[in-house]
Specification:
Three copies of one chain form a homotrimer.
Chain A (H helix, E strand, L loop, with lengths): L4 E2 H8 L3 E3 L6 E2 L1 E2 L9 E4 L6 H4 L6 E4 L12 E4 L3 H16 L6 E2 L4 E2 L4 E2 L4 E2 L4 E2 L4 E2 L4 E2 L4 E2 L4 E2 L4 E2 L4 E2 L4 E2 L4 E2 L4 E4 L4 E4 L2 E4 L5 E4 L4 E2 L4 E3 L5 E4 L4 E2 L4 E2 L4 E2 L4 E2 L4 E2 L4 E2 L4 E2 L4 E2 L4 E2 L4 E2 L4 E2 L8 E3 L4 E2 H12 L1 H15 L10
Parallel strand pairs in A: 4-5, 5-6, 6-7, 8-11, 9-12, 10-13, 11-14, 12-15, 13-16, 14-17, 15-18, 17-20, 18-21, 19-24, 20-25, 21-26, 24-27, 25-28, 26-29, 27-30, 28-31, 29-32, 30-33, 31-34, 32-35, 33-36, 34-37, 35-38, 37-39
Antiparallel strand pairs in A: 1-3, 2-7, 22-23, 39-40
């Protein structure tokens, strides 16, 4: 990756209150932690516990808090700023803009756009995209290669879809929505009734609505509703390989970590967090701000603010106690046995179940 | 979504034994549950426990059982039918046909079809599809955009593949098979032998056969056999993000819920159900009609009809008992401790393992 | 599938020390286990426990160890070889070459290759591939249909990407890397900071490096680093639907089975194995050669060589003991109750947690 930042540019961006040292490499060409930095890298002291590493870092430029007292080595530059972590973030954001500049508006000649689609202003539509009849695309939206927008789908303003994202027929996105590679919005819900021994599909005639600022990770799948809507609330962020069943609802600002899954019609209130590989049964309500740990399996409603763990789910504090005690089970069995011996009680022969 | 149904159409479709009320909206424009319905919606009473909601629903038209005794409000219409749920399903199926009409037969000019492929009658082949040499496509089959049919693959009649479905070389589908967006049929099995410390791929030269009426969900993956066949039995329905390893076999009419997985060579007999995120080790046999709960982990054969829960799997009844008892573990430890105290027995110091 | 091997070809390939029988089918047309073989099939005796099946197999040709003493039936041929399993593998490899011959070098006219990309010698670039500006493709690499190589990505020599594989901007692959259908290398890491109640994306400006001989399964996702590198060590094999978070590192020759997942910044040393659906929390180190069982949930560092099981993870031996004892919990509760009765101690009322 080609990151190249002159010291002047960097200084202009982070506006240090003080500069120490000189002669750093003409250009910063990378970013790294203090321990891993090599000459040419920019590093930073974001957490006091790493203070000793500043003296030995090979970084050419280091962002430091004003109270850091050491001096740079020859050829090293220290930039003193009020909040090194935030300034690093500003640098990262600038680098991000360079690495991923907005593509210039335009429509690739291989994009297939139905004449009955309505296109906003200032769009980028990449190669081999397909936009079906009746679809509406908001202003300033970017569709990278192979994106597929179904019939009568409505895409908001300032969306950015990475290659191969799919928004199926009749689905809707708000503004500033991001879809990553291979995300599938609006597959059929998985519902069947069994008639004469065969599973007959229940029509899935609802849609999916992604509200403003939603992100959906690579190869994640969000199913359309049986009827009405599968809705993802504003600001909710969904990681890779997540499954969201038909008629689910998430509140605003939820976080769904990779490989988690929600069965049909389950509702997350605002600010719920699902850890990786967590699974929720159908038709549940998870209260505001609840945190469902990784691999947790939830089979009943969860109150607001609860922290759940284990499968089936337990409150964190109970789960922690049990996790400790289950390791002591072999001892407990021995203790009960010696009590029985002590008392001359015959052990009940175990019933097999 | 544009659902529009006149009351006349609706009446013709559901053939009510009696109609009450009049003056409903000229057209039904949505479907919703009694509680969530708004004016313009059709709703229904499918379960007696919701009977009180009929009196307060805002739905413009309600499907009701013949024995419902209330009267419609002004501007509301009640249609009395023998089985409101089934009539709703009929309405949904009609709506589905309108929302997803069969595309007219035809081959998009951007579809790349090898001259050595054999195409049936009455096909729709969408934009940017690729059909390789030797592939055979049955009559009335629909391939939406970007579908990829590998060399010498054989696709049956009346299949419907959503965009980006892949059937790799030499794989076979029966009739009426549905693949959803991004489904991958026929990836390599995951088999290696370790030679001099490096994992060397074992050739995976079998194929995948999907029998009649199989459905495979979005981004699910079914691996080809090491040799011979990975087979999905007729009528089996597979949800999104499911993994099926090489040489697996499913019986007829199995249900595999989202994110479940089967390791290599495992066999499901007919009517097996895998819950979400359930996982099966390799080389197992799961008996007819067994139900493997969500997140269950199965390490050994399961008899027909069993209901399994937990990881590693236990029969449901045992698992339920244990789930209750594990919450009482802290108490049990205390009780044993007080017995020891009572008896003046020293607690054995826990051995660490 | 059309496997066709004359007996002469087969004999030339496996070089038997002795041949018994004659008149086998002119051509071998399939491979199967002894029990499942039909006339026309090749089978083999790879494990002494199957010796009795040789006498009854319907296979036309059987690979046997030199010490097998039975005689072929009429129309059946026995080929005696030192190591039947290895010879079978040789036959499979030959079949694999026939089933998947290297495509002849060439660039499909529908491939979109930026003039600022650099192409090696002897490439195959399939239909509807896209190669962005600055990308570099090594010699002898094969990109099947719809592959997408991002800006400034660098692909090594002798890579083979199946259809729809994605290597995003700035990512790097070594030599002999294989990507399967829908694999996504270089999606954004999933990192946010919460500002005024909204999750703000932390820029993800690192990349992904896949070292030599890595394989990534269908629809798996590997995220780019926040900064620096997400690195997959040489010879590591990744199955389908696996998730690898930003800044993870795997050592050399790891095995990650289907649906396993690694949260951000976790490190696998060499030869680690993750079972199916196993999950690792972030910022952990898993020691060399450790084996993490299927569905195992790991929340802390794991020493080299450990075998872990259950969620949260326990050493296998402990987990096994506990798995047995938990089934005996109902008995234990009864035993403690009868001790209490015996002693006339009141059961403590359970505290609810």
């Amino acid at each position: 990756m080609d990151i190249s930042f002159s010291l002047d540019e960097l200084t202009a961006l982070v506006a240090p209150s003080r500069i120490a040292g000189a002669g750093a490499a003409a250009a910063i060409t990378g970013l790294a932690s203090l321990a891993e930095a090599r000459p040419g890298d920019l590093s930073f002291l974001g957490n006091p516990k790493y203070t000793p590493e500043v003296a030995t870092t090979a970084a050419s430029v280091v962002l430091l808090p004003p109270d850091y007292t050491g001096a740079p080595r020859p050829g090293q530059v220290f930039l003193f700023v009020a909040d090194p972590s935030r300034m690093l973030a500003a640098v990262c954001a600038r680098i991000e803009e360079r690495l991923w500049p907005r593509p210039a508006p335009g429509i690739h000649p291989t994009a297939l756009i139905d004449p009955a689609a309505k296109l906003g202003a200032n769009l980028y539509i990449g190669p081999y995209c397909i936009i079906e009849a009746g679809a509406v695309i908001g202003d300033n939206t970017i569709l990278e290669a192979y994106c597929h927008i179904g019939r009568d789908a409505r895409i908001g303003h300032d969306n950015w879809f990475k290659p191969r994202a799919t928004v199926s027929d009749y689905c809707v996105t708000g503004d500033r929505v991001k879809l990553f590679v291979g995300a599938v919005v609006g597959g059929d819900g998985f519902g069947f009734e069994t008639v004469d021994g065969a599973h007959r599909k229940i029509p899935q005639i609802g849609n999916v609505v992604l509200e403003d600022d939603v992100e959906v990770g690579a190869n994640s799948t969000i199913d359309r509703a049986r009827f009405a809507v599968t809705r993802i609330g504003a600001g909710t962020k969904i990681d890779n390989l997540v499954q969201i069943g038909h008629n689910c609802q998430t509140g605003r600002h939820c976080i769904l970590v990779s490989q988690s899954g929600m069965a049909g019609s389950t509702i997350l209130e605002d600010y719920v967090m699902l850890g990786g590989q967590a699974g929720l049964a159908g038709h549940l309500r998870i209260g505001r701000g609840a945190r469902i740990a990784a691999q947790c399996g939830v089979l009943s409603d969860i109150p607001a603010g609860a922290i759940m763990f284990d499968s089936p789910a337990l409150p964190l504090i109970t789960a922690k106690k049990i996790a400790v005690l289950r390791k002591r089970l072999p001892d407990l069995f021995k203790r009960v046995k010696s009590i029985e011996k002590h008392l001359g009680i015959e052990e009940t022969p175990p019933t097999h179940s």
